[in-house]
Each structure stands twice: as C-alpha cells, then as structure tokens.
Specification:
Elements lengths: L1 E7 L5 E5 L9 H8 L12 E3 L5 E2 L20 H4 L6
Antiparallel strand pairs: 1-2, 1-3, 1-4
Protein name: Zinc ribbon domain-containing protein
Organism: Allochromatium warmingii
C-alpha cells in the first residue's frame, strides 16, 4: 500500500501514513486516526494537506536494499529533468 506525507496547517507537523490511492485525508483527526497517534492539543478539524511526494509503495523486498543513492548530478542541474546517464 502506498505511503503519503501529510502536513498540518495548524501545528506544521508532517506525518507519514499508508492508504489506498483513492483516499485523501482532510483533517488532523483523520490523519491521527490513520497514523495511530493522539491528536494532542491540535483540534481534530484542523486541515491537513497531502504533500507532493508521489507516494511510495513499501514492501518487504524494498526494505534494506543496501544500495547507495545515486550520486549527485555533476552539472548541478540534474541533466535535464533527472535523466543523468540516460542522454
């Protein structure tokens, strides 16, 4: 199931949760319920917004791959949209 990051406008916290692609959480209470955390002092109806992270599918095969991240682009400009080495 994909994971998504949501930011609360009221407390500026970012929380990662997993849910179906067709779902969207709209307030802090829904986000906390999905994450299994307490709302604390933030009102449950405080708005939250899904961040544009693209979502990540977490599977047991994708955990701990041991692969290092790709090196930074030598030009510093990501070679035309992140296509380093593919041009």
């Amino acid at each position: 199931m994909p994971t998504y990051d949501y930011r609360c406008d009221t407390n500026d916290r970012v929380i990662e949760v997993s849910h179906r692609m067709s779902e969207t959480l709209s307030n802090w209470g829904e986000l906390c319920a999905r994450a299994g955390i307490d709302c604390g002092d933030t009102p449950a109806d405080a708005p939250v917004h899904r961040l544009a992270t693209g979502g990540t599918v977490i599977t047991s095969a994708s955990l701990g791959s041991g692969c290092a991240p790709a090196p930074a682009c030598p030009t510093g400009s990501c070679c035309g949209g992140g296509m380093c080495g593919l041009n």
